[in-house]
Prior knowledge:
Elements: H1 14-20, H2 28-34, E1 40-44, H3 48-61, E2 65-70, H4 72-77, E3 85-91, H5 93-102, E4 112-118, E5 124-128, H6 131-135, H7 141-160
Antiparallel strand pairs: 1-5, 2-3, 3-4, 4-5
Amino acid sequence: xxxxxxxxxxxxxxxxxxxxxxxAAAPASAAAQAGEPTVVQVKAKGSVPQVLDQLxxxxxxxxxxxxxxxxxxxxxxxxxxxxxSETIFVGNPNVGKELFGAxxxxxxxxxxxxxxxxDTQGHTxxxxxxxxxxxxxxxxxxxxxxxxxxxxxxxxxxxMLGGM
Length: 164
C-alpha cells in the first residue's frame, strides 16, 4: 500500500512561515483522489524531545490534554533499530463527550494521535491525520462539525511549532 502525504500550509506570520516551516509532501488532491487519508507533516525546529515538550505545553494551554503516550523509539530499539519517534494521544473530555454522544464508534479515531519523529535527514517532524479524515466515514453531521473544529486546532498548534 502506497502512502500519499498531503500538506496544508501553516500560518504563523509571514516571516516565521518562510523561515521556520518546511513542509514536504504530495498535493492534497492526490491523496484525496486516491481515497487515502491525508497525512499532515510539519517540520519543526528543535530535537524530538524539545518539540514534544513544546507541543505538550501548547496542548495544555489550548484546553486539551495528553491522554496517553507511546514511546515507539524505545520499543523499536529492542529490535536493534535506532529511531526517534514519540506519539501522543490528544483530546478534551468535553469534546469527547460530544463525539461519543453522537456515535460511540468514534473511539477508533479519538483521542487524536500526533507523532513526533526525526526523519532520515535529521529533521524533527510532527505528523497527524486530520480528525475530519478519520471521522468522515461515520456520515454524522455532528461528528463532522466537531472534527472540523479539531482540524483547525491541530492546524494552528502544529503551525506554531516551526517558530521554536
